[in-house]
Design a protein that fits this description.
Helices cover about 20% and strands about 30% of the residues. By secondary structure, the protein is α+β, with helices and mostly antiparallel strands. Strand 10 and strand 11 form a beta hairpin. The longest helix has 19 residues. The relative contact order is 0.17.
Length: about 290
């Protein structure tokens, strides 16, 4: 939205940032050495698979990872690009040393898949599973920690990931969950996913298109982390702001306050903007005058 500057907000664990650095490091290494290390990784993975009772069922993916399903769920759902995914996972070196995990017995939710979470191997793993499944993934170094030594992880290390795919949510489901969690009383809901929760009572006609208004707003993600706030003027229906925001203002009355929520199709779509990632549903607290 063309308003004040966006504030940077971290949406994923710091280890994902480490993974991003690892992946960039891979791109700068010697090609010949990488080819040798890839071959060594493949040999190590093959040797590990011989030690696992389900190793003979492993499939190699086009990305280079090997995987097999430990607990199948044929009735489960697969994710699509832009879906959120909730998973539990633990990562090990092939000698069994644990190097990565979700905290305790809790799960971690990736807000949106398909634009790069920073951990290529884990994201690809989720796309290969169905909800309710557990699976083992053997990742070559370039899908894991890369070619730089990390704490307890030697450079070029292949990694075993044990992943449980808990659930998935598309953006509309994420919005429904958010509204239910907040116990909001919905005033308006459109077929394209815009939700309006009015927080005061104002009579009179809706603002409609072609009107000049001043809007005070606070922009947040659905986890309530703020990414922007400010006050600005706009003419409704003039394509000056993102579609969900404009549509909501047109449905409101002057001096009205509301919480508006909408999917990325009415926001920043598959590209994102500044600190707002692609495929991200948003909420705004707004007051129109």
């Amino acid at each position: 939205m063309k308003v004040s500057k966006m504030k940077r907000v971290s949406l994923v664990f710091s280890f994902l940032a480490v993974m991003t650095l690892a992946m960039s490091g891979c791109m700068n290494s010697d090609g010949g050495q990488d080819e040798q290390k890839i071959a060594e990784n493949e040999a190590a993975i093959a040797a590990y698979l011989k030690t696992d009772s389900l190793g003979s069922t492993a499939v190699v993916d086009s990305s280079g990872l090997y995987y097999f399903i430990r607990k199948p769920n044929p009735a489960g759902e697969r994710v699509k690009t832009g879906d959120g995914a909730t998973v539990k996972f633990t990562g090990y070196l092939l000698n069994g040393a644990k190097v990565l995990s979700t905290p305790g017995d809790s799960a971690f939710t990736f807000p949106a898949l398909g634009y790069s979470t920073g951990f290529a191997g884990l994201e690809r793993a989720i796309f290969l599973m169905r909800t309710g499944e557990k699976a083992s993934f053997l990742l070559p170094y370039y899908l894991a920690f890369g070619n730089v030594e990390r704490v307890n992880v030697p450079a070029y290390s292949p990694i075993r990931l044990e992943v449980e795919f808990v659930k998935k949510r598309n953006e509309l489901q994420q919005i429904d969950d958010f509204v239910a969690r907040k116990k909001f009383v919905v005033s308006d809901k459109t077929s394209d996913g815009l939700v309006i929760v009015r927080t005061n009572t104002v009579t009179g006609e809706a603002i409609g298109s072609g009107k000049s208004v001043t809007v005070k707003y606070v922009g947040k993600f659905l986890d309530d982390k703020k990414f922007d706030e400010g006050t600005f003027s706009l003419t409704t229906g003039a394509n000056q702001v993102i579609p969900g925001f404009d549509a909501a203002v047109q449905k409101m009355r002057k001096t009205e306050k509301a919480i508006i929520i909408f999917p990325s199709s009415l926001g920043y779509k598959s590209t994102g903007s500044g600190s707002i990632p692609p495929y991200t549903p948003l909420q705004f607290e707004i007051e129109v005058n």
